[in-house]
Amino acid sequence: MDLGLTERRRSRLATSEARTAAHLELGRRGEALAAAYLELEGYSIVGANFSLPVGRNLRHAIVHAEIDLVAYEGPTLCFIEVKTRASDWFAQPQANVDLRKRRQIVRAARAYRRMLGLTGVPHRYDVVTVVLGADRRDADARADGVVRTGGDERAEGGGRREGDDDASHASHDDDPSFEKDSITARSASAAPPRIEILRNFWTEQMVRKRQWSDHFYY
After folding, report:
1. What percent of the chain stands above pLDDT 90?
2. Which CATH fold would you assign to the domain 3-157+176-207?
3. C-alpha span between 180 and 128 (Å, rounded)
């Protein structure tokens, strides 16, 4: 037996397990921060990590869909996807909420509403982004203390931050139902987590197939 090869495999396995554990811890921390921030913004959290099987993939393995947080904002039932990143220098966290993910969440939300007799309740789909290692330059571009922004992110003077990509705002700029709030604070040593609420990030009409299947795999 090649002991060197075995040791390398063990090393790769240990590295993979460490990365998985770190990713899970990042997600848990982000969800806790998101829930606390939502409550500060007036949401009432009623559920977390609601999961159910919604189909099978090409390998016939069961696919589970999970809703990170379920909450009410006033009379509106909100199904909330939380995306947490250590940094957003490469891409914004919400970029990973793709069409496939949205459809899975919609199916899980339909099941949730049907199970609890809430089919007639107004509802929407929100995304909360959490950037734990917010870029210091981003924090320096804002005013001291807490800064909330609505719509496009703006600096203290009301203009867009230098270096903002107009394309990153284009998908929702023409949608009057889309709203965004954010919070950030400046620290002498490092920027604290930056949290944003992307209200009504998508609708069922935007992701609807010709016919929804209400069959779930248990």
Report:
1. 42
2. Trna Endonuclease; Chain: A, domain 1 (3.40.1350)
3. 10
Give the model's pLDDT for residue 98.
94
CA torsion, points 80, 35, 148, 74, in degrees to nearest 10? 60
Place of tokens 């939502």: 38
Euclidean distance between CA atoms 181 and 198, whole angstroms: 7
Distance, CA of 30 to CA of 24 (rounded, Å): 10
Query: What is the residue extent of each domain of the chain?
Result: 3-157+176-207
pLDDT (mean) for 131-137: 63
Over the chain, what is the mean pLDDT?
75
Tell me how far apart the alpha carbons of residues 130 and 183 are, in angstroms, rounded to a whole number.
10
Q: Which residues pair with 195 in a beta bridge?
A: 130, 183
d(CA 57, CA 85): 27
Nearest to 50 by CA among 98, 121, 107, 108: 108
pTM value > 0.90 = no
- pLDDT band at residue 119 under the 50/70/90 scheme: very high
Helix-, strand-, coil-residue percentages of the chain, each rounded to 5:
35, 30, 35
Q: Tell me the residue type at 78.
A: C
Q: What's the sign of the alpha-carbon dihedral 161, 166, 171, 172? A: positive
